[in-house]
Structures are given as C-alpha cells and as structure tokens.
Design a protein that fits this description.
- This protein is of the alpha/beta class.
- It has helices spanning 7-10, 30-42, 56-71, 86-97, 112-120, 141-145, 170-182, 211-214, 242-251, 262-274, 276-300, 328-335, 362-377; strands spanning 17-18, 80-83, 103-108, 124-129, 131-133, 136-138, 152-158, 186-190, 217-221, 235-239, 314-318, 338-339, 341-342, 353-357.
- The chain folds into two domains: 2-28 and 276-377, Aspartate Aminotransferase, domain 1, CATH 3.90.1150.10; 33-274, Aspartate Aminotransferase, domain 2 (3-Layer(aba) Sandwich), CATH 3.40.640.
- The protein has 13 helices and 14 strands.
- The strands form four sheets. The chain has a seven-stranded mixed β-sheet with strand order 2-10-9-8-7-3-4, sandwiched between helices. The protein has a three-stranded antiparallel β-sheet with strand order 11-14-13, covered by helices on one side.
- Helix 2 runs antiparallel to helix 10 (262-274), helix 3 (56-71) runs parallel beside helix 10 and helix 4 (86-97) crosses helix 9.
- It starts with 6 loop residues before the first helix and ends with a helix.
- The structure holds pyridoxal-5'-phosphate.
- Pyridoxal-5'-phosphate is lined by residues 22, 85-87, 111, 158, 162, 190, 192, 222, 224, 230, 235.
- It comes from Azospirillum lipoferum.
- Belongs to the class-II pyridoxal-phosphate-dependent aminotransferase family. MalY/PatB cystathionine beta-lyase subfamily.
- Pfam families: Aminotran_1_2.
C-alpha cells in the first residue's frame, strides 16, 4: 500500500496505521485494471473520440442507463455534465446557484469540503445538525426551517451520509422534498456512496422523488468511491431539468470544469459495465468488517459508541464517554499510532468523535482495534 503513493498511506510516518481518508485498500476490479492497461498498451492517449462522439457522452449515457436500471429513475443524458470530481462540482454548483453572502445549508457533521466550498466562495454556512436517535442519526426538519440569517438558498444533501453512514428513508426524503419545494431551495445531492449500502437496503436518488424535486436538484455521482479509483478523476453532475442546466452554464461555462481523462472515462465505463461481480464481493467484505468492528467495540471498548452505518465504509465513533482531555483523533494518533479522521474536521463541536475507514483487510482491522485497545488500557 505504501509503495502505491496515496494520500491515505503516505500522510503519516510508517509507524502509524491509517484508516482516515475514504480510500479502499483493495486491488482494482480486473475489468477496470484492464481498461486502463489496454489504453496504455495501445498508446491510446490522443484526443479521444468514440463512435464519432466525445467519450464523456458515453459516461452520460451509461449513467442514465444505470439510474434507470437500478432505481427506475429516468435521467436525460443531455442534462449531464461529466466533470473531474465531486468536490469540484460542489464548488461549481455553490458558485453558480448562490451569491456571495447568501446561505447554504449543510448537514452536520459534514464531509469537510462541503463547508470549505461554502466558506471559500464567500457564502454563509447554515448548519443543519444531526440528532442521535435509537435508529441512528437523523436530521430534524424543524432545525432546518429555523429562520437563519441569511436564509439558506441551497442545501448540500449528502445521502448516504458521510461520516455517519446514515441513509435517509423514503419518508424522510419526502418530507425534505416538501420542505425544499416550499422554500424554493436548490439541492446539491451528493450520492457518491449510493452503491455502498448494507443489509439489502436500496438507495433512493433524491431527484427521483418527482419532477418538482428534480427540477431543483443537481445529483452528483461517480464510480470512484465504489471502485476505489478516485485518482482517475471522472464524475457526473446531473441537472434535473434543462432549465437548471442552463441556469448553471449561464454562470459557469462547462469548459471551466475541465475534462475527465480518457483513462477515467474508460475505467468508469468498465466499472459500471463489468465490475458488479468484483463490487458484490467487496460489499460483502465491507458488511462483514462493519459487523466485526461493531461487535469488538461493544464487547471490548464499550466506552466507544457507534450507530452501525447503513451505508458507506465509514464508522462515526463517539468517544465522549472516554473522558479524554484532548481531541479523540489526537489521542489515538499519539497513543495508538492509528490515524482516524478527526471529528472536529466534520463539526467543530465533534472533537470527541473520530471517523474510521474500515475498507481494509481483516488483519489490518485487527491491528487497528488492538492498538486502540492497548492505548485505552494504558491511559
Ligand atoms: C460525500 C463525499 N463527496 C465527495 C467525495 C470526494 O469526491 P471526489 O474525489 O470526486 O472529489 C467524497 C470522498 O470521500 C465523499 O465522501
């Protein structure tokens, strides 16, 4: 892993085991590896064209076909822009659909680039905090509709949710849809984790809730999280109506979003077309690791709270019962030599939380849990 040169494995010195940034430690799906290797073997790195069309159109078609097949959600490929990555798409959408000083609602805890996208572009983050309940974290609409100054014009919705792993139910999504229509909000729906769902659950694309919802929703998706290829840079930005797309391109020309490379495009097509068998095996392993981590924490480290994630390979661990005198991420980095994502990067109030990435092998999970156990004992 260290030889690959990745953000996850190279950020800390070799004595530290990393389980922070959302990268998976598995080998690539063979069809994806072959797609990239074939391009290289053929030296096919000119300006690409496929059947007389720019190849990103094939990604738009494949996305539409996939959404229809998996969710019965009809998608117009002509309302889809293929961009390089989701964080770029979030900055772009916030810039195009709001003005400086306006409010952008963000669920808390939040994947850190969401708040960065709002603050870096001079917008105002309107926090929509989660409440823990018996079924996991939830977001009370009452907390979103409180009159914020400035009022939110746009909502960044992360579903499935990073870092809590919560999937909103159809009832919750319908109530939210009703709220956004009544308050005339634009929704940027980040659904990058849509494939990684457990216990036979089914993801529901927010824009599929109806035409009134679709026409105000930008859906963000890619194959990069599910197939472990974020370095290949290829993502989809789907606008739920032509008018919404035109509103966006009137402010930001798509050229400014760059273009995905042919390697990212071919890898995405191969993943969606031929990667299901690989993905099913990975998902089964991830579900097993989720259950294993939960069982070990419950039995041996009960001071650490966890609502088991319904989706994503991320676990949001509540260490507040440990009574630490410093942020939990810092404690485990120094005393266990394990690098988690620090809770305070998701919410300034969450310094007693850490986010664990369990997309790794069982021996590494065991080593991580072992180091945690020892650090807690020697406290
Ligand atoms: C919710 C969410 N959105 C976006 C991203 C990053 O996507 P990209 O690499 O395409 O910018 C991540 C990565 O972990 C994520 O969890």
């Amino acid at each position: 892993m260290r030889r690959r040169g990745s953000l996850k494995w190279d950020r800390y010195d070799p004595s530290v085991l990393p389980c922070w940034v959302a990268e998976m430690d598995f080998d690539m799906a063979e069809p994806v590896r072959r797609a990239v290797a074939d391009l290289s073997a053929a030296g096919a790195f000119q300006y690409p064209l496929r059947g007389g069309r720019p190849p990103d159109r094939l990604v738009a078609d494949a996305f539409a076909e996939r959404m229809e097949r998996r969710y019965g959600w009809p998608v117009d490929p002509d309302c889809t822009l293929v961009v390089t990555d989701l964080v770029q798409a979030i900055y772009a959408a916030v810039t195009a659909f709001t003005r400086k000083g306006e409010g952008v609602a963000v669920q808390l805890p939040a994947y850190p680039p969401f708040r960065a996208a709002v603050e870096d572009t001079g917008r105002h983050a309107v926090a929509w905090p989660a409440d823990p309940g018996p079924g996991g974290y939830g977001w009370d609409l009452g907390r979103l509709s409180q009159d914020s100054r400035p009022a939110a014009k746009l909502l960044i919705l992360c579903n499935p949710h990073n870092p809590t792993g919560r999937m909103l139910s159809r009832t919750e999504l319908a109530a939210l849809a009703d709220h956004v229509v009544r308050n005339d909000l634009i929704v940027v729906a980040d659904e990058i984790h849509a494939d990684i769902v457990y216990d036979g659950r089914a993801h529901i694309p927010f824009a599929s809730l109806g035409p009134e919802v679709a026409r105000r929703t930008v859906t963000l998706h890619s194959a990069t999280k599910s197939f472990g290829i974020p370095g290949l840079r290829c993502a989809v930005m789907h606008f739920g109506s032509r008018a919404l797309l035109e509103r966006f391109t009137a402010v930001l020309h798509p050229r400014l979003l760059g273009q995905s490379s042919i390697a990212g495009i071919e890898a995405t097509l191969a993943a969606w077309r031929d990667g299901q068998e690989w993905f099913d095996a990975v998902l089964a392993h991830l579900q097993g690791m989720r259950d294993y981590v939960r069982a070990v924490l419950r039995a041996e480290m009960p001071e650490i709270g966890l609502h088991p994630p319904q989706a994503t390979y991320l676990a949001w661990l509540d260490c507040s019962a440990m009574g630490l005198d410093r942020p939990a991420g810092e404690f485990f980095l120094h005393h266990a030599k394990v690098a988690f994502s620090a809770g305070e990067t998701f919410d300034p109030q969450a310094s007693q939380f850490i986010r664990m990435n369990f997309a790794t092998s069982k021996p590494l999970i065991d080593e991580i849990l072992d180091r945690m156990r020892q650090a807690m004992r020697s406290r």
